Prior knowledge:
By secondary structure, the protein is an alpha/beta fold. About 45% of the residues lie in helices and about 15% in strands. It is built from 20 helices and 17 strands. The strands form two sheets. It has a ten-stranded mixed beta sheet, sandwiched between helices. It has a seven-stranded parallel beta sheet with strand order 4-3-2-5-6-7-8, sandwiched between helices. Strand 12 (about 290-295), helix 12 and strand 13 (about 315-320) form a beta-alpha-beta unit. The radius of gyration is 25 Å and the shape is elongated. It starts with a strand and ends in a 10-residue tail after the last helix. Ligand NAX binds near residues 60 and 127. Ligand NAX binds near residues 14, 59, 60 and 129. It catalyses: (6R)-NADHX = (6S)-NADHX; (6S)-NADPHX + ADP = AMP + phosphate + NADPH + H(+); (6S)-NADHX + ADP = AMP + phosphate + NADH + H(+); (6R)-NADPHX = (6S)-NADPHX. InterPro entries: CARKD, Nnr, Ribokinase-like, YjeF_N_dom, YjeF_N_dom_sf. Keywords: ATP-binding, Isomerase, Lyase, Metal-binding, Multifunctional enzyme, NAD, NADP, Nucleotide-binding, Potassium. It comes from Kitasatospora nipponensis.
Amino acid sequence: MRHAHTVEQVRAAEAALAPAPLMERAVAGLAAACARLLTRRRGRVYGSALLVLAGSGDSGGGALFAGARLAGRGAAVSAVLLDPGRAHPAALAALRAAGGRVTTDQEVGLADFSRADLILDGIVGIGGRGGLGPAAAVYATAPRAGLLVAVDLPSGVDADTGEVPGAALRADVTVTFGTYKPGLVVDPGAGHVGALHLVPIGLRPPQAPVEALQHADLAALLPRPATESDKYRRGVVGLLAGSERYPGAALLAVAGALRGGAGAVRYQGRPAEEVVRCHPEVLLTAGRVQAWVVGPGSGDDTPEALDDALASEVPVLVDADGLSELARRGPGALAGRAAPTLLTPHAGEAARLLGGTVTADQVAAARLRHARELAARFGATVLLKGSSTVVARPDGAVRVNPTGTSWLATAGSGDVLAGLAGALLAAGLTPWDAAPAAAYLHGLAGRLAAGEPGAPVTASDVAAALPAAWRDVAEGGRPGGAAGLGD
Ligand SMILES: NC(=O)C1=CN([C@@H]2O[C@H](COP(=O)(O)OP(=O)(O)OC[C@H]3O[C@@H](n4cnc5c(N)ncnc54)[C@H](O)[C@@H]3O)[C@@H](O)[C@H]2O)[C@@H](O)CC1
Ligand SMILES: Nc1ncnc2c1ncn2[C@@H]1O[C@H](COP(=O)(O)OP(=O)(O)O)[C@@H](O)[C@H]1O
Ligand SMILES: [K+]
């Protein structure tokens, strides 16, 4: 599990430790990471050109100290001070003593930026507030040939939310200290991070409000049939999906549910004939169900389907047309439910559920805030789809999905996800586990289907790749197995 802590938590954890060893460990880790990158790129540190972008805080201080170390190993280091009167005095002195060149001239800074082999972004770290000022903002778009390494987090990304209120630097590598921050794992901020490297500095932060499951976590969560299993023990999913207009949604949701390990799928909807032709395993009879999925392409049947599902005493996943109906009814529609409810909106559906006071773009730009607000309002677990899918609980806890690819943005892939998550609910996982597990497998299946460097995939391809994703997780999670994705 990757844990991401807020600025307040990081500062409190840092306050419990002596400042000097903290800076020492961070700088040692940062300089070592840069030395590795330079060696990989140029064969050695000696003779390489390094530029430090130094702001007024400790992020700038750490970058200047690291620059001094690399100057000591023969790199030609220059630093541009973005807030000249307030640069970290001791770090500045160390860089000068090591032979580094310091400038406040932005023209010189931009010229060095274009030529450097490696640039250290120490403009701001967790103390950054609002968008970058104009002097720093030019580096967000200025041309460069070298690698950009963000110190703690890319400047311009909000550490607590992943929001990017203005210009922000785009890093090739981010070297973060002590613990991950939400802004490093939630888009749009996460899209600026590049490869993420954690330097331990001895922090002991409290429980993280945001976490990201990794391969081993998934391997522990995924249900496996025991020798005495039968289809009911594995879980039966009821699907209220598809319509004459959208038969495909039913087929794809069924495909997701079957490959999500459901013992059986009971289907209720108009295109039943097509469903059975494509998936002869599906049951059309009424009977016991351990979780309902309602909404993918369910069209005019939605209000009745939603009534039936919500009246049941088993977990219910509401998706697509079910969410539009729920938006019309409001949060009160879930008030009487004892069993859990999982909502799986994309940004547009989330905006509607929030009463139309925000746009889909605003939801996507502030994913944590809106997912949490929705979960609290509806008293349900919310899986907000899109780049870096987030799962929020009504108490504000969040799980961010680290897998996925934008190739998944294809019609019907959400239907596969709904069926898959429904199967995991029917197997007995709570929405808090089922939702991120489904997002993880779905994202991994998307990556496997798209391949490397990537090619268009269909929702059916994603469903077909689910068994491979499942196996990949099971193998990677075994001690000594393949390295987990994103580890
Ligand atoms: N404490 C330590 O020993 C170390 C801290 N480091 C990093 O330093 C950061 C914490 O240091 P600070 O608290 O000084 O915070 P920052 O380094 O983020 O600097 C905050 C300062 O930057 C200015 N600032 C805020 N928003 C700005 C904006 N939008 N544009 C331009 N300037 C802006 C303000 O004057 C503010 O005081 C963390 O990210 C931490 O990882 C590491 O670099 C190295 C070791
Ligand atoms: N830019 C993106 N990056 C990664 N995943 C994405 C992106 N856009 C969409 N997705 C994923 O693709 C799926 C699309 O689902 P949805 O919007 O419901 O589409 P549909 O209704 O056509 O099935 C979701 O799993 C979502 O998280
Ligand atoms: K930074």
